[in-house]
Amino acid sequence: MLAQGIPGTIQESLYYHVYNRGVENTAIFYDEEDYRVFLDYLKDYLSVPADPESAKKVFNIRGRAFRGTPHQPKNYFDQLELVAYSLSPNHFHLVINLKQKDSLQGFIRSLCTRYSMYFNKKQHRTGSLFQGPYKSILIQDEACVLLLTRHLHSHGFSSYPEYLNTRVTPWVKPAAVLTYFEKTRFDSFKGLGSYKDFVEKYQPGQKEKELLEKISLEDKTLYTEKREAVSKNQHPPSRRRTPELIAASGIFVILLTLGLRNIIGSSKNIVNTPPPTSSVLSETMETEKPTETMETKEPKKMLSVKATGGSANVNIHQEPAVNSKMVGKAKEGDIFEFVSEDSGWYEIKLADGSVGFISSEYIEVIQENK
């Protein structure tokens, strides 16, 4: 009765149940807008193609006007029909009536890729949205299709209103399932007056539950009438790049870069700084000595030769005595460096570095260097 769908061996004009879920079982629909976008994509694929002429628009490129047709997604209107659907926060179900061989794989892949691009952009995330390749199973019995639609219409955002004729959607095709229900309800579903009663009141037997376990494609093997909605907070924070996370990451990178630059700069300064020379070291040591231990130099006393009492020159003696040998002469105004003083005589430093003596009566102290 059941056959697993395998790409490349799909049979024509048969029913397929298609299922896919969010990666790590996380949400793929957060709000009503997400459901509407997914359904709009289904509408694009399954509606009657628009007339190419009516789809043309005027484009302005570099100041010049052109009339052309915008890019349109591939259309599967004449290749397959959507019999029923159910969208839950973390997965979706589609029941497809296949008309053309090999069209199912391209249709589902295009649908999932297109929706993933929309969802990732909206939620500021990257990476895969769906767990992996979609699952599909071939259903060759119309009774199984009927039970499956009841299961899908018992929960989620589904095509149930189309089956109750309270909402008309041209690209959803419930006629075949409803026709089969009308033909079999008196024999198989006694006491049920409508498809609504079948969905809301019918109690499946054990064999029907086991059958649904095989064709539901869900991870839970036990069939239940109600399943809890997946919390919207299940979306892994690590996969969502919120503005706050991006800003924090940027600040961290900047601080890390500045820190590395400071470390590198400090290392260069340490390596390139030459060791202190002996003179610098000695100066440093001298400045660090206590002031009371530093040797103080006596200020230099300068001497000037004063009036000579009419004489042109003043004698400079080798010893502090009038009768000692003369070593030179000085005239009024000559200046000498004081060396010492001894019994009325000044010892002076001569230009050649030697010393001599002049009587104190011819000397005047004129300056002290401090």
Automatic annotation (TrEMBL):
One of its GO terms (molecular function) is DNA binding. It comes from the Bacteria. Pfam families: SH3_3 (PF08239), Y1_Tnp (PF01797). GO terms for biological process: DNA transposition. Residues 300-367 form the SH3b domain. InterPro entries: SH3-like_bac-type, SH3-like_dom_sf, Transposase_17, Transposase_17_sf. This is SH3b domain-containing protein.
